[in-house]
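To: structure subgroup
Subject: Chain for Friday's discussion

All,

I'm putting the inputs and outputs inline so they're searchable in the archive.
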Amino acid sequence: MTPPTVDVHAHVLLPDVESLVAGLPGHAEAKEVDARRNGPAALAVNGPMVRARVPRMTDVALRLASMDAQGVDVQLVSPSPSHYHYWADEATAEKVYRLANEATAAHCAQAPDRLRGLGLVPLQHPGHLVRALDHALEQGLDGVEISSHAPGRELSDPAYEPFWSRAAERGAILFLHPFGCTLDERLDRWYLSNTVGQPTENAVALSHLIFSGVLDRHPELKIVAAHGGGYLPTHIGRSDHAWSARSDAGAGCAHPPSSYLRRLYFDSLVHDPHVLRELVRVAGADRVLLGSDFPFDMGTEDPVAALRTARLPDADFHAVRGGNAAALLRKD
């Protein structure tokens, strides 16, 4: 039976979350940091771009019409990363993740056969992560979306161990989607904050998970890396060399870094058929999932056509188009 076409990288906008945090201590400062990192030219484009796409991120009927036009049967919907709000204190963070989880679940519930959802957890407060993950799953969501780091914490931080354990135990999907890049003003022109910043953050975050041994300790984790995992899959040979040549690089993980790519999942959003073919080669055709970044301008309006340009063998094409995601989501 032909699997459904499943897009694992699609976003929902949650206005109630932004209303919740507006004016709270720390919110203005976080927006200032974001503005500085992006630069004025990017902000001038971002505003109209996002406003034009708000209807498709909030109105389920418009979302479904767009999916029909793309030939997409199912979307795995995650909150816009602008809703992370990792600056928030514990009380505010709990309100944010509860509201985000419930609102995302309500959005998806309007078309349960076609929309699956992911929630949020407050990475800045490790003690809340297990409870937040459980809350997301209780809403009927399939897992949660996380960024590449939280202020002062990398994903290799030992404080996250209970979270990894719980996610593995419950079979939750963890969608690794960066928001912002700590290279700051070095990327504040030509939209480098996104074009260079996002794949850099992906590569750094995945390297922390690999080199620290997180994937050794929690081999059942279901981590899906946005943007094809950034720069890491196409430069994994350098990581393997460091692991074998240097005691400090090889101390934390049991196997060559390249072997862990086959324990992760990656979306197909790399904007280059040659890179997509390489991603399939190094990670395996069973580990790549269709992704569009719906409906943002750095995504693709036709993810299936983008996948076809890679000219994969038919079995691999259909696996990436939807078979892998259907299995991951336990959909027949």
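Points worth raising on Friday:
The chain has a mean pLDDT of 96.
Residues 6-328 form a domain with the TIM Barrel fold (CATH 3.20.20.140).

D.
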